Amino acid sequence: MVLLAPSNPVVSIGAILAVPGIRGALRTTEAKVVGISPVIDGKPLRGMADECLSVIGVDTSAEAVGRHYGARSATGILDGWLVHTTDTADVPGVEVRSVPLLMTDPPTTAEMVRAALDLAGVKP
After folding, report:
1. What does the pLDDT look like over 14-36, one tens digit per residue?
2. H or E segment and range at residue 76
3. With contact defined as beta carbons under 8 Å apart, do 83 and 62 qualify?
4. Which helix (H) or strand (E) holds 44?
5. Per-domain residue ranges for the chain?
6. What is the value of pTM for the model shown?
7. Looking at the domain covering 2-119, what would its CATH class be?
8. Which of 20, 34, 118, 122 has the fewest CB atoms nearer than 10 Å to its CB?
């Protein structure tokens, strides 16, 4: 399983994906690729992701970021996408689940990790 952290989609994840070979490796790996939305209720979890996303023409929403990454079944990198319970997302070709994403305590964090593992078909 490959887990994309809820980091800035442009200056963090985008920079990593720009490294030659990384995007291709994600597209061709046998492992499932699951991402965690860095946006909750239209606001980035931290930092300036909203400003960065607007520069590349992507709305600040869990759905828009999921669509920006795209489905591996098309030309993207995702098999699964976790969004916060207050968000919804329709990302064609990607299985989307809503779980609490704010890691406020160990049980909530564990629920998020279990959901990511489940999306990837990994049994803990």
Report:
1. 999 999 999 999 999 999 999 99
2. none
3. yes
4. strand 43-44
5. 2-119
6. 0.94
7. alpha beta
8. 20
